[in-house]
């Protein structure tokens, strides 16, 4: 597959919502260990709203989904995932379809938005640790291949957060005690890319 | 899990419904999820908000002399930007609004997005970030210190200044001064249970306590054997005084986390007062009770503020809210 259209973006959101629902207890367990235990609940609510997003273009769908996330999720994850999708949407513009290359650039714009809003860098034990390698791995002309590579990179990034000491977000209050647990934000980011890879 | 609820899903709505029934002088918008009082034209308005589960914070502090509006989010989850925007639009008096935000990533991000939306509405917004928790020692390598007990001091004193007709710049500066002069430290004897999760936020043995906790059921910096009130007060106040020298007159709060009886809070306050008096600090004003809770967590936080005559006057100014009222 080479082109991304509005329908694919809508299916991406629906697939993410389904994966988040399926893994909600797992996300909650991760967040209970080093946060406040509500990541699964909040994201299930947020992506359920994002899955309702409609639009005529990839940009319109992702903008609506991002806005729904911001307006429904609460916590830090709502603004961060919302910003990721809204910045990606802005980069996609009004084009009815996007090439894999254009989609990769849009994901890069989304990542940049998350970095700016949250102020986290790679290694801080946050969603960035899954998002950044995923976006970097999403390359080439073939969407399916790029998405699969991105999902694998996100999963590796998620697993690599386990030994890290958190420096941003609520887990950072634990200091050294945050080590030994996978970051829940990185885990949900891996689901977002797993959903993308599963579309084709 | 044993709780006085119908279902976890309806708890927030049910509680707001009850809040409306108990406090008919305030307006509860169940659709927007905001609690407001009528705007005061020509005066600065204070809007705050955060996750639910910290009651009476914040809705319990809406009323003359304190907040104009509160935006309760889901349990331990910040409100969304639309809520903050709706609350700010509903209560602004034409001369600016102060957002009082506890320093948690979610609260800070959602209030920042709301402030952007309000900028488009031409409502002038200033934001004070409350970050008084000295238990977060490595604040340059974390999300920064958490906002806890000092939030009550900021909302009361800045609210009094707004009520007195001070400008947004003055109210904002006072709010920052209160935060800069306040420090807190919290301990837990047991973790709270988020209703929708159904299990305590962290494991703690029968003979253990958690030092340096926040207010969201996140574990603290370390666990240890349960200590007597005297030792807890000493360690907490040592941490506070090491960070900010305590001198002269102080406003002191011993705040219950939700599941600790008042008799224990008063026993803690005795230890706190003895410790401070022994070091030449006068306890000029005090609060003992449940003000910034963490659901059914057992434990307390101690907050100390170095007073000035002006801040004391503003603290003493009349206030009439569900959870704090005097002088009217």
From TrEMBL, chain A:
<dbReference type="GO" id="GO:0005829">
    <property type="term" value="C:cytosol"/>
</dbReference>
<dbReference type="InterPro" id="IPR012737">
    <property type="entry name" value="DhaK_L_YcgS"/>
</dbReference>
<keyword id="KW-0808">Transferase</keyword>
<feature type="domain" description="DhaL">
    <location>
        <begin position="7"/>
        <end position="198"/>
    </location>
</feature>
<dbReference type="GO" id="GO:0019563">
    <property type="term" value="P:glycerol catabolic process"/>
</dbReference>
<dbReference type="InterPro" id="IPR036117">
    <property type="entry name" value="DhaL_dom_sf"/>
</dbReference>
<dbReference type="InterPro" id="IPR004007">
    <property type="entry name" value="DhaL_dom"/>
</dbReference>
<dbReference type="Pfam" id="PF02734">
    <property type="entry name" value="Dak2"/>
</dbReference>
<dbReference type="GO" id="GO:0004371">
    <property type="term" value="F:glycerone kinase activity"/>
</dbReference>
<keyword id="KW-0418">Kinase</keyword>
<dbReference type="InterPro" id="IPR050861">
    <property type="entry name" value="Dihydroxyacetone_Kinase"/>
</dbReference>
<protein>
    <submittedName>
        <fullName>Dihydroxyacetone kinase-like protein</fullName>
        <ecNumber>2.7.1.-</ecNumber>
    </submittedName>
</protein>
UniProtKB/TrEMBL annotation, chain B:
<dbReference type="GO" id="GO:0019563">
    <property type="term" value="P:glycerol catabolic process"/>
</dbReference>
<dbReference type="InterPro" id="IPR004006">
    <property type="entry name" value="DhaK_dom"/>
</dbReference>
<dbReference type="GO" id="GO:0005829">
    <property type="term" value="C:cytosol"/>
</dbReference>
<keyword id="KW-0418">Kinase</keyword>
<feature type="domain" description="DhaK">
    <location>
        <begin position="7"/>
        <end position="326"/>
    </location>
</feature>
<dbReference type="GO" id="GO:0004371">
    <property type="term" value="F:glycerone kinase activity"/>
</dbReference>
<dbReference type="InterPro" id="IPR012736">
    <property type="entry name" value="DhaK_1"/>
</dbReference>
<keyword id="KW-0808">Transferase</keyword>
<protein>
    <submittedName>
        <fullName>Dihydroxyacetone kinase-like protein</fullName>
        <ecNumber>2.7.1.-</ecNumber>
    </submittedName>
</protein>
<dbReference type="InterPro" id="IPR050861">
    <property type="entry name" value="Dihydroxyacetone_Kinase"/>
</dbReference>
<dbReference type="Pfam" id="PF02733">
    <property type="entry name" value="Dak1"/>
</dbReference>
């Amino acid at each position: 597959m080479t082109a991304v259209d509005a329908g694919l973006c809508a299916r991406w959101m629906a697939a993410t919502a389904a994966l988040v629902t399926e893994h909600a207890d797992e996300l909650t367990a991760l967040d209970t260990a080093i946060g406040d235990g509500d990541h699964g609940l909040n994201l299930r609510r947020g992506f359920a709203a994002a899955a309702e997003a409609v639009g005529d273009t990839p940009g319109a769908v992702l903008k609506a989904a991002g806005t729904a996330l911001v307006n429904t999720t609460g916590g830090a994850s709502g603004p961060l995932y919302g910003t990721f999708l809204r910045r990606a949407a802005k980069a996609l513009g009004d084009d009815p379809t996007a090439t894999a290359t254009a989609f990769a650039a849009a994901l890069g714009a989304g990542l940049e938005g998350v970095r700016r809003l949250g102020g986290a860098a790679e290694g801080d034990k946050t969603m960035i640790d899954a998002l950044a390698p995923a976006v970097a791995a999403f390359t080439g002309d073939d969407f399916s291949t790029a998405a699969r590579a991105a999902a694998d990179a996100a999963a590796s990034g998620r697993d690599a957060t386990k030994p890290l000491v958190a420096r941003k977000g609520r887990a950072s209050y634990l200091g050294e005690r945050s080590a030994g647990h996978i970051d829940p934000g990185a885990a949900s980011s891996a689901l977002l890319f797993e959903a993308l890879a599963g579309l084709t | 899990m044993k709780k006085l609820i119908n279902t976890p899903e309806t708890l927030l709505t049910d509680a707001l419904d009850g809040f409306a029934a108990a406090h008919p002088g305030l307006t509860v918008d169940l659709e927007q999820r905001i609690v407001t009082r009528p705007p005061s034209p020509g005066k600065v308005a204070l809007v705050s908000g955060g996750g639910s589960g910290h009651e009476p914070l914040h809705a319990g502090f809406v009323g003359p002399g304190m907040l104009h509006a509160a935006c309760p989010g889901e349990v331990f989850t910040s409100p969304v930007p639309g809520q903050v925007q709706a609350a700010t639009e509903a209560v602004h008096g034409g001369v600016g609004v102060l957002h009082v935000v506890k320093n948690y990533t979610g609260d800070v991000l959602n209030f920042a997005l709301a402030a952007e939306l309000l900028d488009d509405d031409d409502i002038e917004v200033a934001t004070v970030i409350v970050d008084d928790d000295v238990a977060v020692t490595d604040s340059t390598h974390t999300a920064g210190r958490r906002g806890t007990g000092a939030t009550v001091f900021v909302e009361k004193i800045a609210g009094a200044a707004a009520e007195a007709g001070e400008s947004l710049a003055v109210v904002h500066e006072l709010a920052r001064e209160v935060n800069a002069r306040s420090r807190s430290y919290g301990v837990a004897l047991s973790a709270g249970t988020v209703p929708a999760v159904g299990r305590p936020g962290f494991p703690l043995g029968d003979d253990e306590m958690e030092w340096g906790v926040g207010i969201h059921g996140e574990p603290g910096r370390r666990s240890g054997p349960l200590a007597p009130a005297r030792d807890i007060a000493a360690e907490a106040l040592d941490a506070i005084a090491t960070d900010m020298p305590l001198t002269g007159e102080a406003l002191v709060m011993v705040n219950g986390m939700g599941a600790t009886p008042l008799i224990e809070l008063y026993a803690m306050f005795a230890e706190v007062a003895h410790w401070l008096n022994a070091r030449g600090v006068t306890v000029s004003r005090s609060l003992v009770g449940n003000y910034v809770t963490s659901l059914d967590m057992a434990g307390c936080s101690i907050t100390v503020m170095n007073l000035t005559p002006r801040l004391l006057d503003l603290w003493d100014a009349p206030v009439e809210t569900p959870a704090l009222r005097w002088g009217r």
